[in-house]
Design goal:
Layout: H1 3-30, E1 37-41, E2 43-66, E3 71-76, E4 83-84, E5 89-93, H2 96-131, H3 137-170, E6 172-174, E7 179-184, E8 191-192, E9 200-218, E10 230-235, E11 238-257, E12 260-270, E13 281-298, H4 300-303, H5 308-313, E14 326-333, E15 336-347, E16 351-356, E17 363-368
Antiparallel strand pairs: 1-17, 2-9, 2-13, 3-5, 3-8, 4-7, 5-6, 7-9, 9-12, 10-11, 10-13, 11-12, 13-16, 14-15, 15-16
Length: 375
């Protein structure tokens, strides 16, 4: 081989080595490292899934007090916030006409009884004459019919009297329960008419020391809610105070709000302090499920999926089918992205319980900074 050819081969080899070195250097520089990822460590702690809702505070039992008779209000004997006892007089209606009707009905009743007595005496007399064969059977039948008719008139007159007496008593408006007056709809001198419907005069809340929240829970969360579960809530009037209650009932009748199916949950609360008032809005938190001293990672790890750019830089291991309670997270090990199948547990929307697949202290990828494209 000539000296000239040797020189050409040497130059070509040097150029080839330079190109290979440049390619290797370029590839090495494009490799991703741990600094290209945001990581989250597997830690141990407590998790709780909480259902939140809003609801209105109401008395457990509110009774509407009305009237079955019409008339002018003569006296109003109860006001807002008054504590009343069962049977206590709340108001009086003008009863003069009702009294006259009652007295008239009573007079008719007494007259009917007198006529009944006379008809009975006549029937007894005709019956004796008939037994002595001194009168006809037709006379006896007429006397018997007159007596029965008089007896029926007595029953009718008694019913009329009882109705008139009851209407007279209705002019005295009494509280049907012991409680607190929360609404008053009448004033002295006002005319109330009960011709077509019973007008509302008062609303009495029975025992305001015990109240309830009517909270709306979405269908996505209602499966977690069970009777006797504890609940906490706050109200705007006392933002620094936390109040406690217990779920009494999950009502089965759904309502639809903005295309979301909601269910009403009744929460019993103690209001011995009387701080909570009817109509207040409560922000309710129900601890539906909890797990203590468990392995957990950031829920963002389940959202991370390697992009095509990241996949191009890493050697990926393929993962087969996974179960419904499983998911895939990604770890960075020895310059490679390694998928890991985990079994999930409880989630509080920020962190998620790891039942298997990871160990304490391991780090998982939650976000990647995309590699720069080569020019």
């Amino acid at each position: 081989m000539s000296k000239k050819k040797k020189i050409i081969y040497i130059i070509a080899a040097i150029i080839a080595l330079a190109l290979i070195a440049s390619m290797l250097l370029s590839r090495g520089q494009s490799r991703l490292g741990p600094t290209n990822f945001e990581m989250s460590k597997v830690t141990k702690g407590n998790l709780a899934y909480e259902v939140t809702a809003t609801g209105t505070i109401n008395p457990i039992n509110t009774v509407t007090v009305g009237t079955q008779v019409s008339g002018i209000v003569e006296q109003v004997l109860a006001d807002y916030n008054d504590d009343v006892e069962e049977g206590q007089v709340l108001a009086l209606l003008d009863s003069s006409t009702l009294r006259e009707n009652m007295e008239k009905s009573e007079a008719n009743y007494e007259l009917a009884k007198a006529k009944e007595s006379k008809a009975k005496l006549n029937f007894d007399r005709i019956k004796k004459l008939y037994q002595d064969k001194l009168t006809s059977s037709a006379s006896l039948e007429d006397a018997e019919v007159a007596y029965k008719e008089a007896s029926a008139n007595v029953l009718s007159a008694k019913a009329d009297y009882n109705i008139a007496k009851k209407n007279f008593e209705y002019a005295t408006i009494k509280s049907p329960v012991s409680g607190t007056v929360i609404s008053k709809e009448i004033e002295q001198g006002q005319t109330v008419a009960a011709s077509f419907s019973t007008p509302t005069l008062f609303e009495v809340a029975e025992d305001l020391s015990k109240m309830q929240i009517e909270a709306s829970i979405s269908e996505a969360d209602i499966g977690y809610i069970k009777p006797d579960m504890p609940a906490t809530f706050t109200v705007d009037a006392y933002p620094n105070d936390k109040f406690y209650g217990k779920i009494r009932q999950v009502r089965l009748s759904p309502t639809e709000v903005s295309n979301v199916v909601m269910y009403t949950v009744i929460i019993e609360i103690d209001n011995s302090s009387r701080k909570l008032l009817p109509g207040m809005t409560a922000s309710v938190t129900i601890k539906a499920e909890e797990a203590n001293d468990v392995l957990m990672i950031s829920a963002m790890a389940l959202q991370f999926k390697p992009s095509s750019a990241v996949k191009a830089e890493m050697e990926m291991k393929k993962v087969g089918d996974i179960a419904e309670n499983q998911d895939i997270v990604y770890l960075f090990e020895k310059g490679k992205i390694v998928p890991r199948v985990i079994t999930k547990g409880l989630s509080d929307m920020t962190n998620i319980e790891i039942k298997s697949g990871l160990k304490l202290g391991e780090e998982v990828i939650i976000e990647a900074n995309e590699p720069r494209k080569r020019p």
